[in-house]
Structure formats: structure tokens, C-alpha cells
Amino acid sequence: xxxxxDEKGKFFTNVVTKISVPATIQTTSQLLRGEVHVRKGExxxxxxxxxxxxxAMTNVTILSANGQVQFEAPFLAVQRSQIVWVLPHQxxxxx
Length: 95
Known about the structure:
five-stranded antiparallel beta sheet, single chain, 1 helix, two-stranded antiparallel sheet
């Protein structure tokens, strides 16, 4: 990892800090439930709008059309052109 400092003491690194957002993604053939990783200070939509061919997901469950679990994986690269819709999960309020 490279760390560079400017004259004011601000540091720069090639590591990008991301926040995991639980989400459901519908592709053309499967339903995916897992976590999408969004850069700190950005929205899920900003991550979806990136000009990259794949969207990374972690802790993924792949469901068939009838809702049965087909596969589970710690990591999945989803081809963005196959995404139909994305639904972020909202956290339940703590009492």
C-alpha cells in the first residue's frame, strides 16, 4: 500500500474505503441477495452508475424464480448489463 503526503500533511492512499449495503438485485434470470459495497460518502446509485462491466457483491444468496436457494457464495461479480432492478434493504430501527 502506498501512502503519499502533501505539503499540508494530508495523506493519500490507493485503498478505497467502502461501506457494505445489504441489497436485493434482480438479474434477467435470478434474484440475488447480498451486500453491495459503496464508496464512503456516495449512494448506491453512484456505485451502479460506474463505467465498469461488473458489480461486486459479497455474502450472496442466489434464488431461483420460485424463491428456492440455488447457490451461496462469499463473493460474486455481477455483470451490470444483466441487472434489471436493485432494492437496498433498510435497517430495522433499534428499540
